[in-house]
Amino acid sequence: MGLRFSERVFAWARSMRERPFSRGDVVVLAGIGTLIYAGIRLAVGAPAVVQGPQISLSPAVLPWYTAYSVRRMFLAYLLSLAFTLLYGYAAAYNRRAAAVLLPLLDVLQSVPILSFLPVVLLSLSAILPERTAVELAAVILIFTSQAWNLTFAWYQSLTTIPVELREASSTFRLNTWLRLNHMELPFAAISLIWNSVMSWAGGWFFLMAAEMFTVGQRDFRLPGLGAYLQQAAVSGDGPALVWGLATLVLVIVGLDQLVWRPLLAWSDRFKVEMTEADDPPTSWFYNALQSSRLVAWLGRRLVHPAYEWFDARVIQRWPPDDKGVSRGEAAGPRPDVESWRQAGGESGPHSAPRHAHRRSAASLAGSVLLVTIVAMAVYGGIQAAAMLTAIPARQWGAILVGVLFTFLRVAAALAIALLWTVPVGVAIGTNRRLAILLQPLVQIAASVPATALFPVLLLALANRRGGLDAAAILLMLMGTQWYLLFNIIAGAASIPQDLKYTSRLLQLGRWQTWRRLILPSLVPYLITGSITAGGGAWNASIVAEHASFAGQVRSTIGIGAVIADATARGDYPLLLASTLSMILAVVLINRFFWRRLYAEAAERYRME
Amino acid sequence: METRETSKEPLLEVKHVTQAYGRGDRRFVAVKDANISIHEGEFVALLGPSGCGKSTLLRIITGLQQATAGQILYRGERLRGVNPHATIVFQTFALFPWLTVQENVEVALQARGVPAKLRAPRAVELLDTVGLDGFESAYPRELSGGMRQKVGFARALAVEPELLCLDEPFSALDVLSAEALRGELLELWSSGKIPTRAILMVSHNIEEAVFMADRVIVMDKGPGRVTAEMPILLQHPRDRKSYEFLGIVDRIYGLLAGETQPEKVEVGTAPGEPGLTHPLPTIAINDLAGLLERLDEAPGNRADIFRLAGDLGVDSDHLLRVTEAAELLGLVAVAAGDITLTPLGQTFADASILARKEIFATRIRRLPIFRWAIDLLVASEDHQLRWDFFLRILELEFPVDEAERQLDTMVNWGRYAEVLAYDDDTEVVRLEAGLAGAGGAAGAGRNSEGKGAKGEA
C-alpha cells in the first residue's frame, strides 16, 4: 500500500517541480468557489428552525443505529465507486478532460469536507423534505471522504496497464466490456481494494460528524451510531459512550474480518508480478468460504452461468466491429516501446496520441464535463469574488491569524506523531515476530475514527486551562498518526536485507545505523505519510477547534474555529472566505513544500 | 519439409509508410517511406538494430497504430483500424496474469462471440497442439518463459489468423527454450496444421531470422527505413553450420554493421549545428575494453563480426552497439562484415588503466557532442553548467527520453575519461580541473556541411 502510494506522489511531485501552478488549477479553484457560492445561494431558502428526531441512548437501539450508519456508508461507497469508474476513465482516456480533471481531483483532496456540510445540507433542505435532505447530505459528505483516493488509484491503474496487454486486447478485439472485465478491473483490483479499506476508514471519521449537525437554529439529526456517540458525549453519559464505542469497534473489526481480509486474500490472484509471493494475504473466512460445498455449488450453478449469460449478451449486443475496430481507443500511453524516435514531442502519460481518430464515450463525457466546469467557473468565480469583497478587513485578519495558529497545531501534531511512530514503525517493520503480534492491534486501533473518541477527550480535558488546545492537537494526532505509522512500517520493511547485514558487518553503532541506513531509507515514506497526515489534520481542525460540549460552546483560535463558527452563525461570506483560505493553504503547502521535498528525496534515497 | 507455395497476389502491402512524432523543430521520423509486400505462404523476417522502427512497422501493419503517411493494403483493400485477420505474439507474452492458461486462450475466442460450449474444447485442442496439455488450469506465473510463450502462440492461433505477426517472440526466452520453440513453430507452419497464410516476424537476431524465414527484410535506423531484402532459398530443416547458411548470416551482418565512413561523416555534427548529430551508443565502457582485448588476441587483429558474437556469447544487437562505439572513437574499422583493430585501438588494448583513460579522453574530445559541451563549459562561469541546461538543448536534437539517455552516456564517458565531473546533489556538470583552457582548441575545425537533414520533414 505504501509503495503504490509513494509512486503516485512521486509522479505528481515530478510534474509539480516543472510547473507548480497550472491554468487547470485556476479553473479548479474558481470552480470550487462557484460550488460553495451556489450552495450558499440555495441555502438561503432553507427552513429557519429544524428540530431533529430524538436520539435514544438505550443500548437496545444500537443494532438499528448501526445498521443505519452502515447503510449510509455503503450507499456513499457505491456512489464513490461509480464516480471513480467514470471520472478515472475520462481522466485517463481524454487528454483535454485530464487537463482539468487531474488538478481538480488534487485540490478536492485538500478541501475541508466538513465546511461543505452546512452548504450541502442547507441547500438540500431547501429543495427536499428535511429527513431526505439530511440523509442525502450525510451520504454526500461520506462520499467526499471516500471518493478521491479511489479515483486516483483507478486512474493510476488505467495509465499504468502494460502496453502489451493493451495491444493484445486490441489485436484480439476485446470490446469495452471485456476490456473492463478482463483487463482494467483485474489490473486495478488490488489497489482498488486497499484504497477501499482506506476510504471506509475515512468514511467512519466523517460519519461521526455528519449524523448530527447544528447550523444556527437548525438542528439536524439522523439516527445512527455517530449521532448516538455525540449525544452520549453531549449529555455526559459515560456508559452510553462505552456501549457506542464498543459497538463501533465491533463493526469495524467485523467488516475487516468478513469483508476486507477475504477480499484481499481473493485479490492476490490479480497481482501482476510473474512470481509467486512468499506470504500472500490470508483470511480464515475466505478459506472457509472456499472449502464450503454450498458456496461452490452456488458458484457453479448460479454465479458462473449468470456471468456467462451476461458476457454473451454484452458481446452479442456490441460485437467487435469487423471493418474498423476500436482503433485501440484505449491504447492510451505507450512509453518507449522500441524506437527512441517514437517517444518524441511531449512527455507524460498522454504523450503521442496514436489513436485520436475515434472518440470514445468516455472522451465525449470528459469534454462535456470540461466545458460545463469552465462555464460554471467563469460565472461562479465572478459571483464568489463579489461575495468575498464584502468581507471586512478585520475578518480577513482573523482568517490569516487562524491559518497561522492551525498551521502551528498541525505542525505540533505531526511532530508528536513522528516522535512515536518512527521508532515503533521501524520496530514493527524490521521485526517479523513483533509485526505478527502488533499488526492486528495497530490495525484495530487505527480503524477507530478519531472523531468518535473526541467526546471522550473533551470530557477529560475541556475544563482545564488550554484544554481545548490540547484536545485539538490530540484529535489531529489521533486522526493522522496512523498514516505515518503505516508508511514507516512499509518503509522499514523495504530496507534490503543486504544493507542490514552490511551495517552489522561494518559494526556501525546504533546511532550510525539510524543515520546512515534507516532514516535515509525512510525519507520518501515519511514524506508520503506526512502529506496525507497533514491534509487530514487541517481537515480535522474544523471539528477540533470548535466544540459544543455539555451545553456550552468552546472555541480556540484557528481557521477550523473560524469555519465552524461561521457555520454555526450562518455567516456565509465568512464561510466561503475561510474555506477557500484553508484550501489554498493546504494546496500551497503540499505543492511548494512537500512535493518538492519528495521529488528531491525520491531521487536521492531511492532503493535501486 | 517443403516451402509453401507462394501466390502472385500479395496478402499484405505496405505502401510508402512513414511514421513521425512531434512537430516543427521536434519532429522525429521513426519510419521513413517503408515499402514491403508479403505473399501467401511466405515467412518473412523483419530484421534490424533496436531503434530502427521495426516494431513500430509491425504495429502499423496490424492496425494497432495509424501511420502518419502511406497506407496498408490487405488483400488489395485499404486497412482501417485493427486488422481482423492478423494477430500478434508479443515479446513479453502479454498474457493476462489473472486468467488461467485456458482462460487466456478462451478470451480471444470469447471476444469473437464464440459461445462457452465451443470455446473450451477449442482452447484445449490448441493447447494440446502447442504441447501444453495438462497445464490448462495453471496460471501464467506458474509457467516457465518458454511455456508462457506457447500460451501466447495458442492464443494467437485460436482466432485462426491469416497473418501471424511475431514481435521478437523468442528474445525474452532462455537459449534452449527459444531453440525448441523455434523448431516447433516451423513444424506447425510447414506441416500446414494451422490455417495461417503468412508469418511476419520482427527480430534483431540475425541467425534466427535466417534459420526460419523465406525472406529477410533488413532495416536500419536514423531514420528507420528498409535498406535491403534477401530471399533465403535454403531447404528446411536448415543446417546452421552449413557453408550457405553461414554465408547468408555473414552478409547480413555486413549489411547491418555498415562500413566505417571518413571521420567527418562518422561523427556527425554538434548539437545545434545543421546536420545529423550522431547519437552516442549506450554501452558500458568495460564492454568496449573487452571487445578491443578480444580483437587484440585475434590473428591479424581482425574478426568476423558474426563469429565474434558467437564466441563472446552476446546477442548481435549488443555487439553491434559496442562496435559502433569503438568505430566512433576510431578504435576499430568495419568493412564487409569484418572488424579490424586500428593502430590506436591496439595501443588501447595494450595500455594500462590510466593510459586507456588518456586515449579515451583524447578520442572523445574529437566527438562533436563533447566539443560542444566542453566549449560551453569553458565559456561559462566556474566552468560548470546545470544538467537541465544541457538537456534542454539536447531535447531539440533528440526525443525526450533519448536526450536524457544521450546526456547520461555523455556524462558517463566524460567521467571515465576524467574530462567531465558531475555532482548528483547539485545536478551540475563541471569541467575537470586542468581542462579549463583546452576547450578552444577542440572547437576548431567544425564542419557544418554534414550529410542528411535531420527530421526528414
What's a quick, concise take on this entry?
The complex is a heterodimer of chains A (608) and B (457). By secondary structure, chain A is mostly helical.
Characterise this structure.
The complex is a heterodimer of chains A (608) and B (457). By secondary structure, chain A is mainly alpha-helical. In chain A, a hairpin with a 2-residue loop joins strand 4 and strand 5. In chain A, helix 3 packs antiparallel against helix 4, helix 3 crosses helix 8 and helix 15 crosses helix 18. Chain B is α/β, with parallel strands linked by helices. Chain B folds into 3 domains: 246 residues, Rossmann fold (3-Layer(aba) Sandwich), CATH 3.40.50; 86 residues, Arc Repressor Mutant, subunit A, CATH 1.10.10.10; 83 residues, Arc Repressor Mutant, subunit A. Chain B is built from 17 helices and 16 strands. The two termini of chain B are 47 Å apart. At the A-B interface, helix 7, helix 8, helix 12 and helix 13 of A face strand 1, strand 2, helix 1, strand 6 and helix 2 of B.
Task: Outline the secondary-structure elements.
The complex is a heterodimer of chains A (608) and B (457).
Chain A: H1 2-18, H2 23-43, E1 50-51, H3 62-93, H4 95-110, H5 113-127, H6 130-160, H7 163-171, H8 176-210, E2 212-215, E3 218-221, H9 225-234, H10 238-267, H11 284-291, H12 293-317, H13 340-343, H14 361-389, H15 393-430, H16 432-447, H17 450-461, H18 467-493, H19 497-505, H20 510-544, E4 546-549, E5 552-555, H21 559-569, H22 572-604
Parallel strand pairs in A: 1-3
Antiparallel strand pairs in A: 2-3, 4-5
Helix pairs in contact in A: 1-22, 2-4, 2-5, 2-14, 3-4, 3-6, 3-8, 3-14, 4-6, 4-14, 5-6, 6-8, 8-9, 8-10, 9-10, 9-17, 10-11, 15-16, 15-18, 15-20, 15-21, 15-22, 17-18, 18-20, 20-21, 20-22, 21-22
Chain B: E1 10-21, E2 28-39, E3 43-47, H1 54-62, E4 69-74, E5 77-78, E6 86-89, H2 101-111, H3 116-129, H4 145-158, E7 163-167, H5 175-191, E8 198-203, H6 206-212, E9 215-220, E10 225-231, H7 243-257, H8 263-267, H9 285-297, E11 302-304, H10 305-312, H11 316-328, E12 332-335, E13 338-341, H12 343-350, H13 353-364, H14 368-379, E14 384-386, H15 387-397, H16 400-416, E15 420-423, E16 428-431, H17 439-442
Parallel strand pairs in B: 3-8, 3-9, 6-7, 7-8
Antiparallel strand pairs in B: 1-2, 1-4, 4-5, 9-10, 11-13, 12-13, 14-16, 15-16
Helix pairs in contact in B: 2-3, 2-4, 3-4, 6-7, 9-11, 9-12, 12-13, 15-16
